[in-house]
Amino acid sequence: MNFSxxxxxxxxxxxxxxxxxxxxxxxxxxxxxxLATFLTFLAAFSLFFHRPETxxxxxxxxxxxxxxVLTTFVGFTTSVFSASYxxxxxxxxxxxxxxxxxxxxMYQVLMFSMNLALVTNNIGVMxxxxxxxxxxxxxxxxxxxxxxxxxxxxxxxxxxSVGIALALFGTILVYMAAEPAIGTGPNAMVxxxxxxxxxxxxxALLNLAFVFLLLGYGTKVGLVPLxxxxxxxxxxxxxxxxxxxxxxxxxxxxxxxxxxKMLLAANPEALAPGPLMITLGLASLLFAAFxxxxxxxxxxxxxxxxxxxxxxxxxxxGMGGPLANxxxxxxxxxxxxxxxAIFFAAGGISQVKGTQNMADIGGLTTTNPVLGWxxxxxxxxxxxxPPLGLFMSEFLVISSTFAREPLLAIPLVLGILIxxxxxxxxxxxxxxxEPRGENHKAKGSYVPMFAHLALVLAAGIYLPxxxxxxxxxxxxxxx
Length: 479
Prior knowledge:
By secondary structure, this protein is an all-alpha fold. It contains 19 helices and no strands.
């Protein structure tokens, strides 16, 4: 029974992808896509209660359980939003039935590949899962076949391939460091074996490996200067894929980094990974905060917001320690919920107004109050204002930084404040200005958007004791 839950997390999306590739009916395929992601979420949730025994290819612990449950939940809610969003794309002629089958099949392949990367105990299989997720999203970003979409997909493919190649080289270096202590063969790629023997690895090889891994998987996280693919991919791809990219795929790259960070921490002579992560995190935060002021496309702006917040999360994990790690986990989880909700709103707005250019959108709270106020709530949440949950996570990151490295708190707070100013400056006219632009009939489900925002609000008011204990255990595990 234990192993069947992990099997279900992988088998359900794999089987659903094969079936969806053959289904011509939109309504049937959309419902099957929702059903498959819901069943995958239930299987992932059951891992709370029945975990499989750790093996050479399967590992479920407190750390990846956070990522697995978050990934499958947001994957499910995004599929609900996607059902109505893609129906509108069909009615307007932006997608054909053939592309529709491709879209739903690739959605399930993406869920499979992310889940594979998260549940495996083998660092080579984890690399394969992240590579498959990258290739899948490349194809989905270019699904509209416009010049801009194809250019964005091509840029994503080139930069993603460079990143994944660097990650592969780093993985090979870890294998080489492990070989003298563990021996040749698959055991030298099993993460639990690597951690158990890490103290005897060559620290020079580990140091070099982590630099390549940080650059490689940092590309997936969207860290500066490896971020260039992310804004274009978000702006030109279907909005549900923007939600998955920001809310999930960036986290999977971060998960890989955290695993290797723990490996280095187990070797007392190896390089401390914290300063490197702090540097890239702060660079991402500050760069993205300033770039927010120059954005005109609503989805591209929130793509830079994702870079900003992944910078905060990376910074927190780089600081390390129980409080900073707890704050990083909380911020990562709440960012996934909030940013996907914002993209749900942005997708609805772009369909109602027929554009993503903020200069052509205005007065949404008057013309489309549900979408307008949903966007405002999302921006208030992502800005980290109380009483929403991101206020608490940012407060914990800042307070832990003040306690340990006060000087680092200055650029951290500065970056956050600059980002807040940009968001409210850009959104003010969109939400509250004079009504502008077209006003097509709205069609779509707003339940996923408000469900996410409700969870973020609840987290800001009260965190259940079991959840706090769980995150505290993971924070200790991360060191």
